[in-house]
Amino acid sequence: MGFRGIERVMGVHHTTAIYWVKQTGQHLADAYDPDGIPEVGELDELETFVGSKKTKSGYGQQ
Predict the structure, then answer these.
(1) What is the DSSP letter of 34?
(2) Which helix H or strand E contains 24, and what residues bound it?
(3) Model confidence, pTM
(4) pLDDT value at position 8?
(5) At residue 17, does pLDDT exceed 80?
(6) Is the pLDDT of residue 53 over 70?
């Protein structure tokens, strides 16, 4: 869920949700060292959006 979604569900400002994530991140280990290779992967929705754009250039460039 995105920060704006958390804002709607929790009834707090999205910057508050970002602050919560940053605070929690400080308590996590620096690196993730999995025991094995995961069988399932997940792609971010932004990748899908970028991949479906009709134009491949930006700012008027070809």
Answers:
(1) -
(2) helix 14-25
(3) 0.45
(4) 92
(5) yes
(6) no
Rg value, the chain, Cα: 18
DSSP letters along 38-60, please?
Answer: -S-----HHHHHHHT-S-S--TT
Beta-carbon neighbour count of residue 3 at 10 Å? 14
pLDDT tens-digit readout, 24-51: 988 887 777 778 887 888 766 654 455 5
- Which position has the token pair 């996590």? 28
Q: Is 5 helix (H, G, I), strand (E, B) or coil?
A: helix
Q: How far is CA 20 from CA 10, 11, 16, 29, 30, in A?
A: 12, 14, 6, 17, 18
Within 10 angstroms of residue 18's Cβ, the number of other Cβ atoms is: 13
